[in-house]
Amino acid sequence: MTSNEALEALRDIVGSSQVLPAADAASYLKDWRGEFEPAALAVVRPADTDEVARVIEACAEAGLAVVAQSGNTGLVGGSAAGDAQREVIVSLERLDRVREVDVDNATMTVEAGCILADAQQAAADAGLYFPLTLASKARCRIGGNLATNAGGLNVVRYGNTRDLVLGLEVVLADGRVWHNLSGLRKDNSGFDLNDLFVGSEGALGIVTAAVFKLYDPIVQQVVALFGLDDPADAVVLQRRLIAASGHNLTGCELMSRQSVELACAHIEGCDKPFAREYDWYLLAELGSSAEGDWLPAIMDSVVARAKYENRLRDVRIATDAASAIRLWHLRESLPPAQVAEGASIKHDISLPVSKLPTFLSRALPAIKQALPGVRPCPFGHVGDGNLHFNLSKPAGGDDSAFMAESEHAHQVVHDIVVDMGGSFAAEHGIGRLKVEALARYKQPVELDMMRAIKTALDPDNRLNPGVIVPKL
Amino acid sequence: MTSNEALEALRDIVGSSQVLPAADAASYLKDWRGEFEPAALAVVRPADTDEVARVIEACAEAGLAVVAQSGNTGLVGGSAAGDAQREVIVSLERLDRVREVDVDNATMTVEAGCILADAQQAAADAGLYFPLTLASKARCRIGGNLATNAGGLNVVRYGNTRDLVLGLEVVLADGRVWHNLSGLRKDNSGFDLNDLFVGSEGALGIVTAAVFKLYDPIVQQVVALFGLDDPADAVVLQRRLIAASGHNLTGCELMSRQSVELACAHIEGCDKPFAREYDWYLLAELGSSAEGDWLPAIMDSVVARAKYENRLRDVRIATDAASAIRLWHLRESLPPAQVAEGASIKHDISLPVSKLPTFLSRALPAIKQALPGVRPCPFGHVGDGNLHFNLSKPAGGDDSAFMAESEHAHQVVHDIVVDMGGSFAAEHGIGRLKVEALARYKQPVELDMMRAIKTALDPDNRLNPGVIVPKL
């Protein structure tokens, strides 16, 4: 079948206005971080699950591979198509409905093209709460959240995307549809396929909808910012805050001095939080959907003990919404501040929470030795053991000269992470960006299992080829 | 290789005293519910993961299949070996250590042969809390909990076994070992294989150890028993209790009038909870690890509103431990009371919580029509949508005549469950008992995926053949 015949077959399914030639599809052929220059034969925009299935079937017949895409805001090139002749991007944008909110079951059925913020709003409109939230929530879409098992700011309390999923609807490589949207909280009838598809980056099937667990809106909250000398104190504080609050630590973000300095330098509304600077800052939020006002007292009690033990240098506590937003603004300004400062080499690593201090004590000197003048800006979700160990270029340094050190930097950092049993891809995934690192760092036995499962579910390698599964 | 040569090879690995011929292995060849008469060539008791791996390899060479077994208390014949010539039971009892408790990471690494109650105690000894709990906790072992994705009494708050797992150590079909015990709370480096092995009933690999999330001990609690006319009120109450308490509903058990009557008739210490009887009872427990005493007020508030709306007939609230234990004793007495009453046909079903009332309004008349005189004793975990829809024989009826109706009863009940989008295997699993039902009720596309994954990871069908995956 020629390319033109294949495109004609796709037009027959979705209508000719929904098949965009690559030349008219710039927004689908962009890579969020600019690491890749995506290429595809066309972008196809099916209207519903049935059209997705027929598109997949038609692509299989035409010998075309399929790259599923929803918001295209991923950070590892997972939706960056890579072949202008043999790959088609299937955009799920038009599958954007919230199909159902079941209040008594506390669940919501959402299509893959729904924008995350819209899904949050649908839950709120029903008096419930969808806790998944990311910086890109106004732009990212549920399909990508599922494909990457997105993390974000609330994981310490509510888990990753996977932990919120009760069921999926998936179009398989042969175009058949698996329907599993019943919304069961217990089901041991067979292997757990839901969790296999979540986080599989479109390489095992195309998720078209999901049932999510919902929670209840937060009605009491307290936010505190701590100035610390030692990240080990952050580990102790997160553990105590979880215990004392009854697992109501809803945010727990560690910020290094350098990362906060850049935010204060570049981002409006960011002021130095204390009269003097500290090496580390910890932002902690307690929140509960239970009526009451006991969380501030719990925060005070944890703070008092930590002061007594000399574990914290300074603290600011926000009990009203406006002050809480100001503290969070500092945290949310760290990534844009790093962009504003110029070249930045990024790492998305995780370790057991208990090992973060040791990791920092190994990785910081190692990276300073490897990249003289580098300014490490580690920050992130300490309650999940997940740090964005980002490195800003030397002050006034050249962007491209610094970025040329990326591979070197990755190896220094990831070698330490893997040596300590950690992950070099904690929440952003593998995509095309880290597929070689995966081949390097994973145990052969795990690589073999991944390949065996990929072959079992996508024997012709038609779903997002080159992503997540290293080539043999 | 002859059987004798194979046994000799196994003795070389584990020592001759740890290879038991079937004749000396009665306790490993029992089926907890008496549905099967297990048979195996021998029982092998390896000392550690390395010995497990070598045993699997030796069995593969000898052409023997392997049935992993830990506590052997499962309810669906998942560890009931089925071939006296070609199957070997690998008992994991000797892998019974708690390898580590990491307090700052709030995790625990436990071997598959550890008794559940011992794992709970290890967490408690470290000041933490392992929430998985089952009636069989003094006898069941972690390996079986993982193999069946065990549920139990705390799922409404803490999830199933799968939700507590952060990583696994697994011996694969070819004897290689996958090491994934780092205890990461975030790791998107590849497919999610942990959740695939959990609940796979030993058919994809043999789990030898796991890292579990830990929580904090409960320090405030209130338990209430409600008398209700309508199970729909139980659904409303569970939703309100979750919302009002900030997701601190730790137990939520629905009990039918008949089930409570049998408990009061047969089990010591069970007294009628109210002056009159009600069609339904709901046992609800709120618990939190946060210091304080606000839960009783939250319970009072939910009760006051429900009374005002005429949603409950009667209530007993226990705020001290002794009264709470008495209320729970009633719930825990339901299964032994059904045993004492004679023949009982069992169903382990789930639906969205919101659909349970409709299910009961369909299934109760249908089963009464199908089995005249039957006494339905539904009870279970209403907060998870999971009911044990058990049926006691007609009063004074013949046990074996009633049990002869089992298949008929299963079909009536499961047809309704599946028609409503529910599961006929909610928490006990498939094992050998329900593998035909799985073949009948599952979508072909899901059966195909299960078979493809089974073949990918166990190409020679050597791991627990006949369990969970229907034959082609």
UniProtKB/TrEMBL annotation, chains A, B:
PROSITE patterns: FAD_PCMH (PS51387)
InterPro entries (UniProt xref): FAD-bd_oxidored_4_C (IPR004113), FAD-bd_PCMH (IPR016166), FAD-bd_PCMH-like_sf (IPR036318), FAD-bd_PCMH_sub1 (IPR016167), FAD-bd_PCMH_sub2 (IPR016169), FAD-linked_Oxase-like_C (IPR016164), FAD-oxidored/transferase_4 (IPR051264), Oxid_FAD_bind_N (IPR006094)
Keywords: FAD, Flavoprotein
The keyword Protein transport belongs to this UniProt entry's keyword annotation: no
Domain annotation FAD-binding PCMH-type: ranges: 36-217
One Pfam family from the record: FAD_binding_4
Entry superkingdom: Bacteria
Protein family per UniProt: Belongs to the FAD-binding oxidoreductase/transferase type 4 family.
Protein name: FAD-binding oxidoreductase
Organism per entry: Salinisphaera aquimarina
